[in-house]
Amino acid sequence: MALLAPPPRTPRIALDDNDDLNRLRSRMTQILASIVTILVTGWFCTFGAIPAILALMTAKHILVAILVMGLGVDAQRTEK
User: Residue 6 falls within a domain, yes or no?
Assistant: First the structure.
């Protein structure tokens, strides 16, 4: 019986920086932060007109910051 050479090794696949688990964690953090912001704003709206106006102004800025973070405006750009 002739001796057979083992099959060639499979090529290694390089892992890129787009880790799906990190993206999922980031999205879930954004969703949780948005929900908490909306709930806290609603709670402040029950205290009256002045706290409601202040809470809505603050919530607007927080929600825009969460949106900008999700769009990746502050992400580092890699050169190809």
Answer: no
What SS3 state is found at 14?
coil
- Asked if the structure places residue 1 within a domain, the reply is no
> Tens of pLDDT along 22-53?
888 889 999 999 999 999 999 999 999 999 99
Q: What domain count does the chain have? A: 1
CA distances from 68 to 6, 8, 75 (A): 53, 47, 10
Structural contact between residues 23 and 62, judged by C-beta atoms closer than 8 angstroms: no
CB atoms within 10 A of CB 55: 19
pLDDT of residue 8: 85
CB contact at 8 A, 78 and 45: no
Whether 79 maps to a domain, the answer reads no
4 in a domain, yes or no?
no
